[in-house]
Each structure stands twice: as structure tokens, then as C-alpha cells.
Design a protein that fits this description.
By secondary structure, the chain is mainly alpha-helical. The protein contains 6 helices and no strands.
């Protein structure tokens, strides 16, 4: 088994090289067109941002009348009793049922997440491909190696940005959940309700921007790699006679 390990590793490297080159030449153009079509679809081209609003399903309760007690002795007794109370966990009951997420935004998130994950996996494959093509360290004739390193840095940058999109999605739901709890606690304050609407509008714009960035990343990587394919695959020239 140990004797076969070097052979298996070489086969693994050859497979990575073939898959990555095929990915850049054939798959990247298809993904650019696919994302461009999605960007021009009806879901991502809403003109009125108010159309992305969602009903919170949190009614405004009737105001409770204030009861004033003018008995000082009773008031003092209540203050003493209150000081002895043990605070427990507050539970908010929603008579109208659960508070749903914004269905429209959730659908857009479900559409984008597979494309984000695909870009992360594609850049990881390209990163390994370029790394395997970098020759051993030598003095001189390193112009092609510098091109490989520049390409690898660009691939790493795209990979990091793509991974950060997942954090952006989770932060939106966390922020919205906190605002919904504020509405449940203070249902008479309209500013909290308006803040949720503004957050949903902002997230729609952000998701559309993420889709644009996904398309642009595929386009720029395809353009960069195809223009420098010869130097990336063969960073050092073997014909040195022309130098003299």
C-alpha cells in the first residue's frame, strides 16, 4: 500500500490539472451566462423596493388603561414586595401564530447559496491547480512563475470574498430576528417595524449585488487565466539559445 502512494498522488495531481483546465475553458463561460440570465430575471429586477416587504403577523394590542393607586401604604407595600421578587424568563406569546421570515428574501437566498458554494469549490480547485504547476525554485527565468503567483493571489481573493457571502446571509437573519423580537416587545413603536422593512430592502439590494459579483468573479478569472494560460502551464521556457 505504501509503495502505491506516490503513484496515487501523481494520479491525483494529474486529475486536478485536467479538471481545473476543463473548468476554466468550458464551465466558466457557461456559469457566466447562467448568472447573467439569473441577474436579468424578474426576481432580481424589482423596481419598487416596497414589493419585498413582508407581513410580520404581530398585531398591535389594545392599549391598557393605567390604574392609579393613591394609597401610600399600599404603594409602599407593593414596592417592598417587588424588591423581593425573583426575576424569571420573559415569554412572549404570539396570538396570531409564528412570525415568518421574509419569504421573498428567503427564496433569493436559496437561489444564491448553491452558486456561492460552487464558486468557493471552483476557486479551491483552481488554487490547487496553479500550485501544482509552479516549478521548483531556481535562479532566473522566473517571469512565468510571477504570473502564476499573481493568478493564485487573485484566485485566493475571490475565494475569500465568496466565503464571506455566507456570513452576510447569516447576519441578515440574525439582525432581522432581533428586530422582530423588539417589535414583539414594543408592538406600539412603528420605528421598529419600519426598520425591518428597510432591512429587507437593503438585503434585496445586497443579494443582487452578490449575484453581480459572482458573475464578475467568474468573468475575470476566466479572462485572466485564458490570457495567461501558456505562462501558467509552462512558466519557464526551455529554449534558452535565443537568449544569446
Amino acid at each position: 500500500m505504501a509503495a502505491d502512494s506516490p503513484t496515487k498522488v501523481l494520479a491525483f495531481k494529474d486529475r486536478i490539472k485536467m479538471e481545473a483546465e476543463d473548468l476554466v475553458v468550458k464551465e466558466f463561460p457557461n456559469r457566466v451566462l447562467q448568472l447573467e440570465t439569473l441577474l436579468r430575471s424578474e426576481k432580481f429586477n424589482i423596481l419598487k423596493l416596497a414589493d419585498v416587504h413582508s407581513d410580520l403577523n404581530i398585531p398591535v394590542p389594545d392599549p391598557q388603561p393605567m390604574i392609579h393607586n393613591h394609597d401610600d401604604k399600599v404603594s409602599k407595600k407593593r414596592k417592598l414586595d417587588h424588591n423581593n421578587d425573583v426575576d424569571g424568563t420573559k415569554v412572549y406569546a404570539f396570538a396570531a401564530g409564528t412570525v415568518p421570515s421574509n419569504k421573498f428574501i428567503t427564496e433569493l437566498v436559496d437561489i444564491l447559496k448553491p452558486h456561492i458554494r460552487q464558486l468557493v469549490e471552483d476557486t479551491n480547485l483552481l488554487k490547487m491547480w496553479v500550485q501544482f504547476l509552479i516549478p521548483r525554485i531556481e535562479d532566473g527565468n522566473n517571469f512565468g512563475v510571477s504570473i502564476q503567483e499573481d493568478a493564485q493571489n487573485e484566485i485566493r481573493t475571490v475565494e475569500g470574498e465568496a466565503a464571506s457571502y455566507f456570513d452576510q446571509l447569516s447576519r441578515y437573519f440574525m439582525t432581522r430576528g432581533k428586530l422582530v423580537s423588539k417589535v414583539a416587545k414594543y408592538p406600539h413603536i412603528d420605528d421598529y417595524r419600519r426598520t425591518i422593512e428597510e432591512l429587507d430592502e437593503k438585503e434585496f439590494v445586497s443579494l443582487r449585488l452578490v449575484l453581480c459579483e459572482l458573475r464578475n468573479h467568474y468573468s475575470t478569472l476566466h479572462d485572466l487565466i485564458t490570457k495567461n494560460m501558456d505562462k501558467i502551464k509552462r512558466p519557464r521556457t526551455t529554449n534558452t539559445d535565443n537568449m544569446y
